[in-house]
Amino acid sequence: MQSCCATGFKWEGTPTGREDTIDNHPVYISGDSKDRAILFNHDAFGWQLNNARLLADHFAKEVGATVYLPDFFHGNAFGENDVVSVPDGDSFKMQPREGFDMGKWFAENGMDIRLPEVIGVAKALRKQYSWVGAVGYCWGGAINFKLASKDHGGLVDCVCIAHPGGTTEDEVRKIAVPIQILAPEHDPTFQPQMRDFCNTEIPKLNVDYNFQYFPGMVHGFATRCDPSKEAEKRALELAKNAFVYWLSTHAK
C-alpha cells in the first residue's frame, strides 16, 4: 500500500505561474483567461507544494482558465516531515513526528474556521469572472462540499473533489451545483459508508454528478503519488483527466 497521504512524493517540473494576492491571501496564479476561474483548494501541505502548482498549471492550460491557489493556512501548512503514514489494518493513519502537535494544527485550521476565508476568495473571483469552478484535495475537498452547498448561493458553478478530508450527510444533502468525486479504495476520511451515501443521495438532488472509484489507491494519490510506479502514475493521469473533463464540461 502506498504512503502518499502524509509523506508523498515530489514531482519533477517547474511551475510556470506567478505569485500575487487575493482577498489578503498570498496566491499562486496560473493562466490568463478573463472569463473562467478555478479556485484550487489545497490539501494540508498548502499552496507552496510543487505538485499542487504543477496541477494548477495543468488545469489552466487544459481548461482554458485562470487558476488561483491561495494560502489558507497563513504559512502554517504541514511540513514535509511533520507526519508519516503508518499501516492501520487495511488502511493507514497519520502519525505526527515528535514535537509536532497535529491536534493543535487541526484546531487552528479546521474547515469551519477557514471556510469564511475561502468564501471571501470565492466572492472575489465571482466579482471578476463569469464562471468559477473549484477543485479540492483532502482538506480542500472537504471545503468544496461546503462551497457546493445551497447555503452559499452559487458561489461556484461546479466542484471537483479528490479524496476529501471528510464530509457529513447534512452537507451532502445540501449540494446544489454539479459535483465530481474521485475516491480511492483506502481512505479513512471518506469511508465506504459515506461513499455509498453520496452515491445514493446525490442523484436525488437534480445536479450533475460524477463518481469515480480508484481500486488500490489511498488518500492522497491524486496530489502526492509516486509517478515512478505505473499503477500510481496511471491513477494520477486518470484523476487529472477526470477533473479536466468535469471542469470543461461545465465551463461557460
TrEMBL record:
SUPFAM superfamilies per record: alpha/beta-Hydrolases (SSF53474)
Taxonomic superkingdom: Eukaryota
Domain Dienelactone hydrolase span(s) in chain numbering: 31-250
Entry-linked InterPro entries: AB_hydrolase_fold, Dienelactn_hydro
Signal peptide range: none
Residues that span the membrane, as ranges: none
Pfam hit, one: DLH
UniProt name for this protein: Dienelactone hydrolase domain-containing protein
